[in-house]
């Protein structure tokens, strides 16, 4: 399932890359719009992991460190639980406008699921452990998120240009946590947050765009939505009468880093390192780029090897 998700994401990314607008095109479109709507993940916010599912690896490691227990195949368990929760929601039918907590109390389905519903579908894990895992997942999501620097610059220009800003996102995480993520990444001044977990509506079906149109109908034709998902952020937004631009959510801004190494000794750490470097890079000259992208990782690798050597050989002191 994880590999299937990754493959689908790669195919979608290739299509999206062909349709995506350049940053100067986005800036021009923003300057002409009255209302600008932004997607969150891979648009305003990036994660310091290669794929969203890698968050579950971090959660598993934290769980083991805190409890001394390991959960075999936790990533697959978590991915399968989400898949099952979404299937269950589809079988129950759709009732728009209900938040996840309301839905759970009333037994009514909506287009989005909640984190609680995902963990309720997880098999082979105790209720107590599920509670801790949920807390760790929320903490980890907050920790790995960082601003998408080029898009943040566009967001801030929109604010300075006195544009009315909306944020529209499909996400099962609850609204208070999403607000914390936005605050951590430095996003303030938006007028309204349309979150699928709060509205029970999704971009993928277009229903949440209907909610936007209901609130801002007089501005129809003057609302610009920006996001990275080909279907949800581009085609569906256009189908619902909004202007839309696609951004490359997986843009590689590194000049000297070679991402072709699929046979790395530890692909997870390799992917995390690439994501961190790519997400946090600012403008540098050639020499600084080489230091940041090549020499820095080499030094990190050397320090990691040295630490492991010190521990394995029980060395008490080391002198340089």
What global shape is seen?
globular
Low-pLDDT runs: 93-109
Number of strand elements: 7
User: Could you spell the SSE succession in H and E letters?
Assistant: HHEEHHHHHEHEHEHHEHEHH
Provide a concise account of the structure shown.
With 320 residues, the protein is α/β, with parallel strands linked by helices.
Q: Could you walk me through the main structural features you see in this protein, from its secondary elements to its overall organization?
A:
This protein is an alpha/beta fold and 320 residues long. Helices cover 56% and strands 9% of the residues. The chain contains 14 helices and 7 strands. Strands 5-4-1-6-7 form a 5-stranded parallel beta sheet, with helices on both faces. A two-stranded antiparallel ribbon has the order 2-3. Helix 2 (23-32) packs parallel to helix 8 (149-160). The longest helix is centred in the last third of the chain and has 27 residues, at 286-312.
